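Notebook, student rotation project (T.W.).
Task set for the rotation: take a protein with a known small-molecule partner, predict the structure of the complex, and write up what can be learned from the model alone. Partner molecule chosen: NAP. Sequence and SMILES entered below by T.W., checked by me.
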Amino acid sequence: MYIDKYRLDGKVALITGGSRGIGRATALGFAEAGATVAIASRKLPDLENVAKEIKKLGRKALPVAAHVGRMEDINNLVSKVTNEFGEIDILVNNAGTSPALASSLDVDERLWDSILNLNLKGLFFLSQAVAKVMKEHGGGKIINVASMDGFKPEANIGTYAISKAGVIMVTKVMALELAQYNIRVNALAPGNVHTRLGDSRFLAMPEYKGEMIKRTPLGRIADPDDMVGAMIYLASDASSFVTGECIVVAGGIFLT
Ligand SMILES: NC(=O)c1ccc[n+]([C@@H]2O[C@H](COP(=O)([O-])OP(=O)(O)OC[C@H]3O[C@@H](n4cnc5c(N)ncnc54)[C@H](OP(=O)(O)O)[C@@H]3O)[C@@H](O)[C@H]2O)c1
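Predicted structure of the complex:
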């Protein structure tokens, strides 16, 4: 059956930022599709709650505390997952941050480093470490969570936009170089999604939410579940001839 191409039975997925928001929804979606799921973020208790939800679906789960902006934690994360499950078939680089608003005149080195270390450097080096495992095992899929901001900036979140534009280029560079090892690398660019990160922007810029809904042809802010169909598509054999692409899941916002 063609629909079986979307199944992830027997696959091992590692999802960063898996404790809430888009990462949690993806972890549960992958588990429903049949995958074993490792989830990573900084706070273990939050991960343990999601691991329980995954196990209730009848799948194996591994919660790992890791700061994905730190090289030591990245190496430890990859060792823990490969020691437990032997391989990593799917990596979702979802952990991301945007801790404060600042224009390009005001951004300081600390804010720049906190955004770039996680959103771009951590994403790159975790991908590198996991790609080495995938190469040994005959291939895999990497999905990078970018953002609509990686295509079109909004004022005062420019450093975040710069990091996400970088994510789109990491996706293309790695797709080009890793295709020979049967590793496909794609990105997903969400629009506005109700999560802790997304809602913090609405709190910081009260007029922003209404403006975004007005600019979005589908007329609403997304829920994390709205991202899961595209995630499963990119993680599965249904997308077997797709690499180096970025799927925009943003309610048509670029049409206006
Ligand atoms: N929500 C939106 O509107 C939107 C739009 C476009 C793109 N995105 C992207 O979607 C991705 C997921 O964001 P979200 O909206 O789902 O946000 P969220 O609900 O706030 O979740 C962020 C996740 O990342 C983890 N995390 C944060 N800093 C980390 C670090 N240094 N190391 C490891 N994990 C870390 C968090 O857990 P801990 O805090 O416990 O570490 C949490 O699990 C991000 O890449 C974001 O840029 C979101």
